[in-house]
Design goal:
The chain is an alpha+beta fold and 314 residues long. Among the domains are: 73 residues, Sandwich (HSP40/DNAj peptide-binding domain); 88 residues, HSP40/DNAj peptide-binding domain (Sandwich), CATH 2.60.260. The protein is built from 9 helices and 11 strands. The termini are far apart.
Length: 314
Amino acid sequence: MKDPYETLGVARTASDAEIKSAFKKLARKFHPDLHPDDKEAEARFKDISAAHDLLKDPEKRRRFDAGEIDASGAERPQQRYYREYADGPGYTSHAAQDGFASNEDLEEFLARAFGGMGAGMGGGGSRRQSSATFKARGQDVSYTLPVTFLEAATGAKRTITLPDGKTLQVTIPEGAEDRQMLRLKGQGMPGFGGGPAGDAYVELHLAPHAFFQRKDDNIHVEVPVTLKEAVLGGRIEVPTITGPVTMTVPKGSNTGTTLRLRDKGVRNRKTGVAGHQIVTLKVVLPEGDEPELAAFLESWKPKHPDDPRKEMLS
């Protein structure tokens, strides 16, 4: 396998945060869902995941840096030479050029390095029989999940079906943000030899809303009002992320007038405090002919005449 640092494009002195950031960036770029039937992208994604799996584990990273394990996480056998015994009494070297005195010495080396050999190395027979169980953590996997604006704002539960038919239950936290990564512990690839399963990482992709917009923890929305409601004021029903509520339009409101609905925004995940909903009014004239309104305006002489375009023409 390739050097994990080179695979993620980070220096050997990179911090945990830099390694995680590099992994997320590359995982999004080479995720198989974005490159169907692209074997090269699939292979690259596997390499990226394996490199991240090794480097995010402090102990594995230490052992790799020390040369104790290779990029796949496998033990590196320490070469052992037996030349120091070559001049001893009663010793005959059969393979001095290879560093081992005999087949028995080679078997002993392999037995200590790998936990045992299952076949004889010479003389035609099985010299020793032993077994070892190697445990390895399963590989992490990454997915993308499209979610609606309201699911992210108020929280939701979703079930996703994987290509192999397995389903995962995903809890979308209240106040989730676009490109937020959720970790599902133990929902990745199964481990080897009884080792623990890897984790599943689900990246949320938020769809825009038809009229709501989020800025920090506040929700912004433009609400149309009739000319009569704007001039005379009144109670109107407005939408919020948790359902309609009633709000008072002040008398003499105009397009651009902003009102605030307290605690009707997104609840902050850290503080638990909800933001507000900012309502901007937009005066809308009635559709179709209104002869009485037209007749009134023709004879109307405002007490405070004003030119709404004066600043543009000065």
